[in-house]
């Protein structure tokens, strides 16, 4: 199967390359006439754009030729485009002084044509790409916002879709994966309608990256290979090298290290020939990471340092925290303790400064491992706490659910369009049949039509039902795995560190440490009990949940002498909630009661749960000391409650004032 795929790619590439060669020859014939008119300028521009993906040097020479043409208004739009394209080429090659120079030139041309929205789009989009490349994400978003606010009909829908792809790259760097998914699917919707092959190549690569980020490796590989098909078809060597690197990452994460190394090296070889410094730096880092996973720290360290030098020369800071985190790990394995500590501390600081929270997770995890090897258990515990805090903020489980929802919605839209088209065709056939056949044949045809339609609908609902059940099972597995890993894994790791700290005490045992171990163990047992209870099929009804909620209220409030009133609205007991909503509802309730019992100093709680307008409403009010919401920083507890309300598809309002108690109101749909 693999050899067939290789031959298919090769055949398509040769065919496409031949067509591209014909285009280049035709443009060069026009250019050789040196007419110095707009036809000449357009040929130079088209040739420059065509060569951007395969020969940056020749592409750049064509743009220079446009800038040397006479100063007159007919050439302004060509010169603006050429200046922006030159800035883009120099940005890819890491020549930053030239980037600013040519962007400034483009702006001066644009000032002469302030109403030309196409020129404005070219400038804003080009600036956004460059700013994202050098790690200035907020500025990149601002540039793209200016471009996307232009008239879509004037700049063209393919260009609008291209902006969405570029936005997805920025959101990906900022760890805003929800926005990344949304704009990627907007781009896919447009490119599917326009059948723009270049656009589809980019959007499939972006989808592959999104799936890779949430560890859906099979889907990531599938989308990368789709992108590769289009890259080869278009003769896009630059894009092809990028996809090769992405596939290398997929294989590396699946422990296919030799295969990953081959893909990284092939990608780097192509990128070096094209003069793409940033992408060469990425492949050097990838090779280093591959060596690190193979437990070969020496070549890993060498490649990380080479990558650092390449990025430094290109003026790119986007990858600093990523490289420093793995550089520190390699140095630690080579017993370069001082250098390792400096690299790891700098990695955490850089990740937080650049708001790259995904990179912060890796940096704090590597720092924790370093502290453990040094026997610094208190520092290891602090680093682990930060690792888990930032992992919770990224929320991979929620991202997986969002991506599944977007894919399902997109697939459903396609299916509805197909069914609509099928109905239209069948109606036309029926009208034509009515003209040619007698009433008896018409009745038979109509009857047959309804049988076929009924079969299609039955089959559709059966497929949808089966898919829904599979998704629910997958969602359940992901939820259980996430809970076991995040809640129990974090607690067990903390117990492990605390026990090592206790063992270091050579004299009398540290009662405080053993007390912490006792608390952590009790917490783990409590969380395990909640997980087991939530997945048991006997607890599907709200009646069972209410029983557990009342049991928990008595358990937490009675020992503290706090009175409470638990009011359940009529008919609420018969409601059935799915596993995820049932679990989130209980954990929100549990967190709210814990806060009231531990911190509020309250004497009485009012708890109400009712169903109204197809929504479930939970109301919890205490008469405690309250807090100032403006002055009090939200901790993990309040943040988790808000996140769980969002996962239920609902919303939660928290009202609190000093000495006036606290009120929590949750509203969420039942289905």
Q: Could you explain the architecture of this structure?
A:
This protein is mainly alpha-helical. Among the domains are: 109 residues, Alpha Horseshoe (Serine Threonine Protein Phosphatase 5, Tetratricopeptide repeat), CATH 1.25.40; 121 residues, no CATH class; 132 residues, Heat Shock Protein 90, CATH 3.30.565.10. The protein is 76% helix and 6% strand. It is built from 26 helices and five strands. The chain has a five-stranded mixed beta sheet, with helices on one face. α25 links the parallel β1 and β2. α15 packs antiparallel against α16 and α23 runs antiparallel to α25. The protein starts with a helix and ends with a strand. The N terminus is likely disordered. Its EC number is 2.7.13.3. Pfam families: HATPase_c (PF02518), HisKA_3 (PF07730), TPR_12 (PF13424). One of its GO terms (cellular component) is membrane. Keywords: ATP-binding, Coiled coil, Kinase, Membrane, Nucleotide-binding, Phosphoprotein, Signal, TPR repeat, Transferase, Transmembrane, Transmembrane helix, Two-component regulatory system. It catalyses: ATP + protein L-histidine = ADP + protein N-phospho-L-histidine.
